[in-house]
Design brief:
By secondary structure, this protein is an alpha/beta fold. The protein is built from 4 helices and 7 strands; from the N terminus they run H-E-H-E-H-E-E-H-E-E-E. A hairpin with a 2-residue loop joins strand 3 and strand 4. The chain is globular. The chain starts with a helix and ends with a strand.
C-alpha cells in the first residue's frame, strides 16, 4: 500500500513538473551561436549584437582593437568593410546585416564566403534613427567576387 502511494505521488510529481515547464520559451541551447568581433569602443556594434539576441541568436562578443586583422583573417574584401565582423556556422557576416538575412543565409546555405553591409547605413540594425536609407546586402566568395544578396 505504501509503495503504491509513493509510486502514485512520484508519477504525479513528474507529470506536474513536465506540464509546468511546457509554457517556457525555447531553451537558449536551441539558438544559433554567432561570434561578433568588434571594437571595444563601438556602441553601434553592441546595438547590432542586441538586435541579433532579440532575433534568437546566442551572441558572444569579442572586443578586438585590431579589427583590420580580423577582417583579413576571415577574407572580408576591403570595399565591403564595416565596423564589426561576425562568424556563424562557417559564414562571415560583415557589418550591420539584419538578422533575417542571416537566418536566410543559414537556411539556404549558398556556396559563398559570407554576406556584408558595407559602411554603416542609416536605418540598418544598430544604426536606427529618424532617417533610414536604402542599402544592399552583398554576398562575397573566397576570391572576393561580390553580388547583391538582398536589398532593403
Amino acid at each position: 500500500m505504501v509503495a503504491r502511494l509513493v509510486t502514485k505521488f512520484a508519477v504525479n510529481g513528474v507529470l506536474a513538473l513536465a506540464l509546468s515547464m511546457s509554457w517556457l520559451p525555447a531553451r537558449a541551447a536551441d539558438a544559433t551561436d554567432i561570434a561578433v568581433y568588434k571594437d571595444p569602443q563601438c556602441g553601434c556594434c553592441a546595438k547590432w549584437a542586441d538586435h541579433l539576441r532579440r532575433n534568437g541568436f546566442q551572441v558572444t562578443t569579442r572586443d578586438v582593437a585590431a579589427m583590420n586583422k580580423v577582417k583579413a583573417t576571415h577574407g572580408v574584401p576591403a570595399p565591403l568593410a564595416s565596423c564589426h565582423t561576425a562568424i556563424v556556422d562557417g559564414y562571415v557576416v560583415e557589418g550591420h546585416v539584419p538578422a533575417a538575412a542571416i537566418q536566410r543565409l543559414l537556411r539556404e546555405c549558398p556556396r559563398i564566403k559570407g554576406i556584408a553591409v558595407p559602411g554603416m547605413p542609416a536605418g540598418s540594425p544598430g544604426m536606427e534613427g529618424p532617417r533610414a536609407s536604402r542599402y544592399d546586402i552583398l554576398s562575397f566568395d573566397a576570391e572576393g567576387k561580390t553580388g547583391v544578396y538582398e536589398s532593403r
